[in-house]
Every structure is written in structure tokens, then in C-alpha cells.
Design goal:
- The protein has about 260 residues and is an alpha/beta fold.
- The protein contains 8 helices and 7 strands, in the order ααβαβαββαβαβααβ.
- A 7-stranded mixed β-sheet has the order 3-2-1-4-5-7-6.
- Helices cover about 30% and strands about 20% of the residues.
């Protein structure tokens, strides 16, 4: 198990620290992330002995689908947060495969592997500073006929919260979310009943790492924003989930279907 820590940007280091702090309790609050992983698994292609790289494995919500779907596969499971990898390793301990290695890796700088049959990422790409460039880099790691699958936040995520902050003249720490190539499904879900529940969900899974230079709202300003979001939108905050697929640059039309299996 390779856990040598890479050199991280300030942003990536902050994200890693936030998720490290919530690793042990992450799955208690990650029902939504689990549902996304379950849905993404429907797009896994038919492969017999694939070499697989997962970016942002977290505690293994999607990794469990991988090892169950490909019992003869070889897996490199990575995350920027060492404590999350430790939880993933523990959760996958019952898996009947010895072909699993773990690496601390910044998904935005992924490399060191080539000839991959499958690259996957569930709810990680939106953390990257330039996910479009990162996807182009990842495509080059695929073997001919290889596939890259992802689930990530789409640009319309948290539109209500952003709108309320703008109307109140308050700064937003939410990072910009990019439109990514290869989208095959786009959905909008509303897992929380209030703005406070939305913020609590984000905090409980380590998802409140703000943009650099952001000054947190005062308690009073935060209360005003929560009240305004509840009053205007009934507390419903949009999570826009985008599922995508990219083929290796030289993939032919005979590559595996994009339809759920």
C-alpha cells in the first residue's frame, strides 16, 4: 500500500484536511453520495480483467461496486485524504481480491499509470481547480478502447444558496463548478428540507472547504441567509448531478455501450 503524500496545492491540502477530519464518520452522513455511487455503477462496462484507476475513492462507496463487478480486475484506489483511504481499505477488507493497491493522489494531478481499461470518479471532479484539463490528461492514460466514467456536481448546483447570498450582498465561498465534456445524464435532486440541513450535510461530510481568500460569514449574516433561503425557496437547495463518459482518444464505435447494464 503506497501512502507517500504528494505535494499539494493550498486548495488541495485544505480539502484533504477537511475530509481527513470527517473520515471515520463520513458514511454515517453520506447517504446521498452513496445513492450517486449506486447510480453511476449502472454505467460500468462489461470487462473481464480490467486495470482500473479510481480517483477520490473516499471510504469506498464506489470502490465496492468495482471489486464486486470485476472480481478478476486490478485496482488502484486513490484519494487526496490519507484517512479516507484508510477507511476505504478497512471497508474493502472482506473483498475476495488481492489485486488492490492504494495511493494518496491529487486527482487534479493524476499520473503514474497508463494502459488503463477504466478510470472512474464519483463526486470528486468538482473539487479540482481545472477539471476539464484534468480530464484531458486522464484520457491519455486509457488503453485503446478504455473508458472514463464520472459523476460530479453540475453548474446548477446550489443555485438557490448562491442567489440568496448575492441578493443579500454576502460573499460566497462556493467554488465555481464547470461544465464538463462527455455528459450522458443530468439530474437535479433536493435531499434537504431546509437551508440549515443543507449546510449541516455539507459540513458532516467535509464538503464546506471554501475558496481561497473567503472570509466566513458572521453568525448573524449566516442566519439571515438561511432565513432568506427558507422563505424564498422553501429550504430546497438544488444538487445538480452530472454523469459522464469519455472514451480513449482512439476508441472505436465498437467500444462498450453507454447504456446502463
Amino acid at each position: 500500500m503506497s501512502l507517500n503524500s504528494p505535494v499539494l496545492s493550498r486548495r488541495s491540502a485544505a480539502v484533504a484536511a477537511s475530509f481527513d477530519a470527517h473520515a471515520e464518520s463520513y458514511e454515517l452522513h453520506a447517504g446521498f453520495q452513496r445513492a450517486v455511487a449506486d447510480h453511476l455503477s449502472q454505467y460500468l462496462p462489461e470487462l473481464k480483467q480490467p486495470c482500473v484507476l479510481e480517483l477520490g475513492c473516499g471510504t469506498g462507496l464506489f470502490s465496492r461496486h468495482l471489486v464486486n463487478r470485476y472480481p478478476d480486475g486490478s485496482f488502484v484506489l486513490t484519494d487526496v485524504a490519507p484517512a479516507m483511504i484508510a477507511e476505504c481499505r478497512r471497508n474493502l477488507a472482506p473483498a475476495k481480491t488481492a489485486h488492490i493497491s492504494y495511493e494518496v493522489m491529487d486527482a487534479g494531478e493524476a499520473g503514474g499509470h497508463a494502459g488503463l481499461d477504466l478510470i472512474v470518479s464519483s463526486m470528486t471532479l468538482h473539487w479540482l481547480s481545472d477539471p476539464v484539463t484534468s480530464l484531458k490528461r486522464l484520457e491519455k492514460l486509457l488503453a485503446p478502447g478504455g473508458v472514463l466514467l464520472y459523476a460530479t456536481l453540475g453548474p446548477e448546483s446550489f443555485a438557490e444558496w448562491r442567489s440568496v447570498l448575492a441578493e443579500l450582498g454576502l460573499p460566497s465561498g462556493l467554488a465555481e463548478i464547470h461544465q464538463l465534456p462527455g455528459a450522458i445524464e443530468d439530474e437535479r435532486v433536493y435531499p434537504d428540507e431546509s437551508a440549515l440541513a443543507f449546510l449541516q450535510r455539507m459540513k458532516s461530510v467535509g464538503g464546506l472547504t471554501p475558496q481561497e481568500g473567503y472570509a466566513p460569514l458572521s453568525p448573524g449574516a449566516l442566519r439571515r441567509a438561511i432565513h432568506a433561503a427558507d422563505a424564498k425557496f422553501g429550504g430546497r437547495i438544488t444538487w445538480n448531478i452530472v454523469y459522464g463518459r469519455l472514451n480513449a482518444p482512439d476508441a472505436s464505435a465498437s467500444s462498450p455501450s453507454t447504456k446502463p447494464a
